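[Automated response] Your request has been received and processed.

Submitted sequence:
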Amino acid sequence: MNPIFTRLRSRMAAILHDLAMIPVAWLGAYWLRFNLGSIPEPFLRHALYALPVVIVVQAGFFWYFGLYRGVWRFASLPDLVRITRAVLMGMVISAAVSFLLTRLQGIPRSVFPLYALLLGLLLGGPRLLYRWFKDHRLYAHTGKRVLIVGAGRAGEMMAREMLRAPEHSYEPVGFVDDEPTRRGCEIHGVRVLGRCEAIPDLVAGHGVEVIVVAMPSASARQMRRVVDLCAGAGVPVRTLPPMDAVVSGRAALHELREVSIEDLLGREPVSLDRLALREGLAGKIVLVTGGGGSIGSELCHQIARLGPAALVVLEQGEFNLYSVEMKLREQHPGLMLHVCLGDVTDQPAVEYVMARYRPDVVFHAAAYKHVPMLEGQAREAVRNNVLGTRVMALAAHKYGCSGFVLISTDKAVNPANVMGATKRTAEMICQGLARQSTTRFITVRFGNVLGSAGSVVPLFRKQIEAGGPVTVTHPEVTR
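Generated structure:
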């Protein structure tokens, strides 16, 4: 069925219902006024005489206060507030008009407040009843039984989302929360069953299949405690997407995710001066080398949010380049994006890219970084990390780039391995060029990039999923 027709039909049904409730409330007020008995004929005649005025006035306030912008399926407190305002204003103006026309002869004064009370109940009651019916009776919940950790605002939103949309295949069976005042309470009909320590017993007693941690403001210590308790229960643990992602539309509340390493580490994020970043990159052409790698791809996404005139991505891996291109075009449809398949050690290819796109700023993230592997591949490490940096830095100098940012590593400090030595050499090349160039050369030393390709976190995760063992590089190493 045409969605426009369906929407119009629903709106007309709501309008007709509300208009029909006006005479019911008006005559019901007389009925209450005369002690639930028959209405005397003179009063009934005056009531019917005033009824058209009441209908016209009240319908006007229904429209003015926007009663039909809301949807009965999601009726809530703001809808009840609009109904209350419309009914009260309708009562006041109807009384004023009736006074001007009839001096209220045959209309008892008590009828007006009784009318407002009845009409408010007749308008708000069906809306709330319809929502309750949709939320709790229309669908039989057959999804996975969920225990929600956290009975705060996020937990309430999660339970509401599960109840109103059973197609998400989750059925909340209870909450756990350490706040004593919440214990035994119900949220949307779902009971707070106890403290977090009771999670293993509750999982067994209620047939819980999934645990959802709804604690967006929890510290890393609290999160680790909850995850440890959930691990003892032997069921999967999920958590909510970040609230900023939900607000921006990049994620939906029901899109649960696994608890990540970042959730458990709880590192304090570094606050960036985004205004200064935007001023430095907005309206400029930016080139990112190694744009398909762990650091390079994240750089591309961060730069794309700052409004560059164009973003040029240079990457030697065909699949990595394709992947980052697809993600950038999906998430930033208005971005002027150019992707180039090439090697930073290929000087003619680099010269072609620089001459064609004339970047203002270059972020050089292309590098080999796997420390153990490069110990046996010193020639390739020097070729890519040292010569590649030299080619890119000279090209940035030649084509007058305003800035060149080298992504280096903390292993360049007193290097003790091939990878660290090559990156330290790359830094020295940039330092040497900085003395004779108008291009501003900047070096940023990264520590370990959590969860990056080739790092220890994905390796440990893969080993655990395969049933172990978890390996380390030396008997005295601890993780």
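Summary generated for your ticket: The chain has three domains: 3-136, 144-265, 279-446. Residues 283 and 309 are 4 Å apart (CA to CA).
If you did not submit this request, please reply to this message.
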